[in-house]
Amino acid sequence: MTRHLAVVGTTGAVGREICALISERKVPAERISLWASQRSAGQRLAVGGCNSPVGQLCEKSFEGVDYAIFSAGSERSRQFAPLAVRAGATVIDNSSAFRMDPGVPLVIPEINPKDAHTHQGIIANPNCSTIIMNMAVWPLHKVNPVKRIVVSTYQAASGAGAAAMEELRTQTADHLAGRKITPKVFPHPIAFNLFSHDSPVGQTGYNTEEQKMIDETRKIFHEPDLAISTTCIRVPIMRAHSASINLTFEHPILPEQVHDLLKQAPGVEVVDDPASGGFPMPLDATGRDECLVGRIRQDAGQPGGRGIELFVCGDQLRKGAALNAIQILELLTQ
Amino acid sequence: MTRHLAVVGTTGAVGREICALISERKVPAERISLWASQRSAGQRLAVGGCNSPVGQLCEKSFEGVDYAIFSAGSERSRQFAPLAVRAGATVIDNSSAFRMDPGVPLVIPEINPKDAHTHQGIIANPNCSTIIMNMAVWPLHKVNPVKRIVVSTYQAASGAGAAAMEELRTQTADHLAGRKITPKVFPHPIAFNLFSHDSPVGQTGYNTEEQKMIDETRKIFHEPDLAISTTCIRVPIMRAHSASINLTFEHPILPEQVHDLLKQAPGVEVVDDPASGGFPMPLDATGRDECLVGRIRQDAGQPGGRGIELFVCGDQLRKGAALNAIQILELLTQ
Known about the structure:
Structural class of chain A: alpha/beta
Oligomer: homodimer
CATH architecture of the largest domain in chain A: 2-Layer Sandwich
Mean pLDDT of chain A: 96
Distance between the termini of chain A: 8 Å
Order of helices and strands of chain A: EHEEEEHEHEHEHEHEEEHEHEEH
CATH class of the largest domain in chain A: Alpha Beta
CATH superfamily of the largest domain in chain A: Dihydrodipicolinate Reductase, domain 2
Largest interface: A-B, 59 and 59 residues
Radius of gyration of chain A: 20 Å
Helix content of chain A: 25-40%
Number of helices of chain A: 9
Shape of chain A: globular
Low-confidence stretches of chain A: none
Strand content of chain A: 25-35%
Number of domains of chain A: 2
CATH topology of the largest domain in chain A: Dihydrodipicolinate Reductase, domain 2
Number of strands of chain A: 15
Strand order of the largest sheet of chain A: 3-4-2-1-5-6-7
């Protein structure tokens, strides 16, 4: 039982999903306090059976708080998470602020639950694409080590927040009506278009999102040298991310083995019946807790039966963010 | 000079683009005859400065024809292309009917123009994704042999024809208006969704589109053993295909070399300035003859500097189909 749970950034796309999951999963808490920026404070949100007021986040928001889930961006996490820890709270942080900090565990509960218990006040929730990819990769890796991953993503608007989802809607309507398009949230048109993920490109030529998938996977897997090649692309999809994944294993592996391993994996649903059109699709993954995995096949391009190709879809707001954070909370409190 | 050029399937998405290109590129022909199925015959289309009637395709359509460009699907090509050849015409066929026939050259004019001249009446135009990918890969391969390709596509609705493009439009409008969606052309919803390419999945686990990219690339490159791993995905984009490509070379190669090679490559435009948001996007590739290539970077996942990642976009109806066919015609007649 949590005595006092705080949700920071509660009016955003992920924050709202966290509130919905608290109610849905009956997360036990004596008190739930909701915090947002000045702009959103004063609203009321349904959570845990109550219609709770949203307070303005400030230095005193964490008095008496046991657990705080942050989904308000890196800047606010950097500013307020240490204050929450100092006030005695354990922070589960959805931002990228602390993910690569060696003193902060980075946790996907189905993969490295034990890491959660090594925390020193902050536990980081991984990047959404990292989580969704690895829900499919880890169950295989722990049986037959993955030596190389080549992944290309198909990322939904929700990863850029509620305003981005609204931009996809309104801009698409404007495009269909022949009205002029003026991108605001995204730097490029998103209606009937796609573009390289809108995060800065570094010296290596990889953008931040791609680098996160590489660095975070290595940290979560405890495999600092795992070879990973990432391409992150934003597509005009509302809220489920997809990824096309090419794997090289240490030992030969058959598609049937992959099927069996993934069928037993928690949080994964195998959707792989090409004859009847059964494969993972964002619309089917939307609102689902499970990541859908399909198109499992022996890689035609790798000798020795050591290659597998597969495709995964997962709800970016649920398993990609809010659900994983709530699962970390459950891991700590149950 | 072509005395008599016939266009078969002239009212489809590719057929209309062929007519537009004949006018735009001033393809010299004394006579241009347009052919379509019974359903579309009787229309008139602007081509080569005339408003020409569309006749109903029949066994006698090819009397006196020198060159015939077919874009009416595999079944019609199988039935009518041999008749056209028998009547003395050279056929440029956009369908997949003859592509893997050892007696039929499969030609991308920038890559294997000489193959065109070995024809025995039929020259095949490659699959759209095959063309667009290889416009970026070939200029590198001919200097530093590519040993392995891992590619994931982002394919536009136009690849499934004009009706599919219209379905994307109307279904998206219906979705936004909250109306019920009933997929007709595609087997799955395409509005705000994506799915594994809608071609049959074979014994190997690869669908026909993926297998085409493998088989056709090997044939065009004259590299029967080239290792290629393909994942073909349909996305809610109107008419430009994209591909995320991971390459392994025989020798080390630098991103700067790739830049230089692609800048000199005909039919390619390097769009690769991440700092200013410069990378290939379908909306920018639409209506363009060039394939846009960007996100060129050393592959973080391959040792020894032998890996490169890049992203390409090309207009599916132009270079992916109609333009390549017209270029083959120009190759034969100029």
